[in-house]
Specification:
InterPro entries: cNMP-bd_dom, cNMP-bd_dom_sf, Env_Response_Regulators, RmlC-like_jellyroll. The protein has 154 residues and is α+β, with helices and mostly antiparallel strands. Helix content is 34%, strand content 25%. Strand 4 and strand 5 form a beta hairpin.
Length: 154
């Protein structure tokens, strides 16, 4: 695989760890409308988007799924694969044709268990993605429900 193509997404990893992780990458593509995974399903893989966009959504009883975030070029799809019980917390749908690198979660988890330094790097990388998404979700919730949006209260 061409590691420089993912340098933006994986820039938090040392080059050696980035190259080792990319050995597990497989190029895949999804047509628009493809459902990548369902909330509550087994998180057995993850992706880095090369082209296209994917909506992350959450089931809302009695309503259409609520879109939580739209992911694009060089973004990680899925972090639930790293944390037990390895089930998806959200769903995901390709909103345009998508090309991505796909990784087998079991193989990557096995590799990072065998190499604590690599495991720490991957955990920090994925943790950074999760933290960013939590901040984004907080801002969206404030925009939706706070009396004055996410702006400062002066």
């Amino acid at each position: 695989m061409n590691a420089p193509a993912t340098a933006g997404m994986l820039q938090g990893l040392p080059a050696e760890h980035r190259h080792r992780l990319m050995r597990f990458a497989r190029e895949v593509s999804f047509p628009q409308g493809t459902r990548l995974f369902e909330e509550g399903g087994k998180a057995d893989r993850f992706w880095i988007i090369r082209t296209g966009s994917v909506d992350l959504d959450m089931h809302v009883p009695g309503r259409r799924a609520a879109v939580i975030e739209t992911l694009r070029h060089n973004e990680l799809i899925g972090w639930s694969w790293l944390f037990a019980p390895h089930t998806w917390h959200l769903g995901a749908t390709a909103t345009s044709p998508v090309r991505a690198y796909e990784f087998d979660a079991t193989a990557v988890r096995s590799m990072i268990q065998d190499d604590p330094a690599l495991g720490a790097s991957v955990a920090q990388w994925v943790g950074g993605v999760v933290a960013h998404r939590l901040r984004s979700a907080r801002t969206r919730l404030l925009d939706l429900y706070a009396p004055y949006g996410s702006g400062s209260l002066l």
